[in-house]
Design brief:
The protein has about 210 residues and is α/β, with parallel strands linked by helices. The strands form two sheets. It has an eight-stranded mixed β-sheet, with helices on both faces. A two-stranded antiparallel ribbon has the order 4-7. Helix content is about 35%, strand content about 25%. α4 runs parallel beside α5. It contains seven helices and ten strands.
C-alpha cells in the first residue's frame, strides 16, 4: 500500500526525533533545559499531535515546560506524577482528546482531571451538524482557532479561563498548583500545528514562553 500524503507529511515532520512514550517519560527529569513532550499513549492522534508540537516549537527552549499531547487514557498514577511536577515548579500543558473516546472512558478521565488537578472537566454538548466550531482564546494572545473535533468543557471553578466557545462555554483554563501551573486544553492543538495553522502556532509558542 502506498503511503498517503498525510503519512508522508508526518514522516517528514516527526522523523527519528519522535520518541516513544516510555523514552519520553524516562528523559523527563533529565531534559529540564528543553520543552518536554510527554505522550502517554501510542495512537495515530497522539503521534500526529507530538509531531505538530515538535514542528511548532522548534527552536524554543524553556526549562520546566511539560506538554502532554492528545490525552485520552491518562492513568491516575501518571496524573499524580504530573501533579507532583507542577507542585515542584513545572508548567504542565494537558491537551485533551476525550471527545475521541467512548463515554465511559471519557467520564473516568474527567474524574482523574478533577481529582488530580481540581479541573471540573465535563463531556461535550451536541452541536448542530455542518456548523464550524471555533474557539476564542484570550490568553496568552487573542486568537480564533478552529476546534479539532467537539471540545470538552470546564465548569466554573478555581481556575482562570483562557478560551471559550460560543462566548460563554469554557474550553481551556489554567490554574496554579504549588510553584507551577496546569494548563488544560479542551480541544487538541497538535493536529492544527501539524497542518501548519498560523494562529495555533502563534498561540502555543506564546503559551510556552509566557508559562515558563
Amino acid at each position: 500500500m502506498n503511503p498517503t500524503r498525510r503519512e508522508l507529511m508526518y514522516a517528514a515532520v516527526a522523523g527519528p526525533a519522535l520518541l516513544s512514550a516510555p523514552m519520553v517519560q524516562r528523559s523527563a527529569s533529565e531534559n529540564l533545559g528543553r520543552i518536554t513532550l510527554w505522550p502517554t499513549e501510542e495512537s495515530c492522534l497522539a503521534r500526529e499531535s507530538v509531531a505538530g508540537y515538535r514542528r511548532a516549537l522548534q527552536g524554543l527552549e524553556h526549562a520546566g515546560v511539560i506538554i502532554v499531547p492528545a490525552i485520552s487514557a491518562l492513568s491516575g498514577r501518571m496524573a499524580a506524577v504530573l501533579q507532583s511536577k507542577a507542585k515542584a515548579g513545572h508548567n504542565v500543558i494537558l491537551e485533551s482528546a476525550l471527545t475521541f473516546v467512548d463515554a465511559n472512558l471519557a467520564e473516568r478521565q474527567c474524574r482523574i482531571m478533577r481529582d488530580a488537578f481540581d479541573l471540573p472537566v465535563e463531556l461535550h454538548y451536541p452541536r448542530a451538524e455542518n456548523t464550524a466550531s471555533y474557539l476564542q482564546y484570550r490568553w496568552p494572545v487573542e486568537a480564533l482557532v478552529r476546534s479539532f473535533g467537539e471540545p470538552v468543557y470546564l465548569r466554573a471553578g478555581d481556575h482562570h479561563p483562557i478560551a471559550y466557545q460560543l462566548g460563554n462555554r469554557i474550553v481551556a483554563a489554567r490554574r496554579s498548583i504549588g510553584r507551577g501551573q496546569i494548563t488544560f486544553l479542551g480541544s487538541p492543538l497538535g493536529p492544527l500545528l501539524f497542518a501548519g495553522d498560523r494562529e495555533a502556532t502563534l498561540l502555543i509558542r506564546r503559551m510556552v514562553t509566557e508559562s515558563a
